[in-house]
Amino acid sequence: YLALGGAEASGISVRVWELENDNTLVALPGCNFEHGSVVKSVSWHPSGNYLGVVGGNGDGKFNARILEFKDNSLLELEKCRLDTKKNINCIAWSHDGEFIAGCGTTIAGGDEIRIYRFLEDVQEIGFIPNCGFNHGGVLYGVDWNHDDSRVVVCGDRGTGGYTVRAFDFSGTNS
Prior knowledge:
Elements (H helix, E strand, L loop, with lengths): L1 E8 L2 E8 L5 E9 L5 E6 L5 E7 L5 E9 L2 E10 L4 E7 L5 E10 L2 E9 L4 E10 L5 E6 L5 E7 L5 E7 L6
Antiparallel strand pairs: 1-2, 2-3, 4-5, 5-6, 6-7, 8-9, 9-10, 10-11, 12-13, 13-14
């Protein structure tokens, strides 16, 4: 499956597509989600059962939500919303699916990068204390390295120019 987000068209801002044998994409009927405004980022959980989505709230701010992909439909997990004081631009799941990183503009408490633990059994997320990183400027992209020991971000350094940085991550970051 392929998930795409973008500008709101007909009230739909995220849609799931299936790749057919002849390499054509077919939208799964009813498998869409209306986020409220433009969608900036989508990220599949490694299991394929969840989709992280960053999009506008309609009030000029951007947040992240986690949707469950079940029976060819997308359902929002109410306890899995990353509402913040500013904007999230991008999210990425760790390779084991236990963590999700979000980056953007002063996400909360002065951190531009925050990492959350995904508790799949109760379908909740929780911020990991001492696990926010201040990059010094707006971040546009985030990803994990191959063994989830580092979070890699790219963005504006705040002093002019763009940069890519990696932050060590231990699971607790204490």
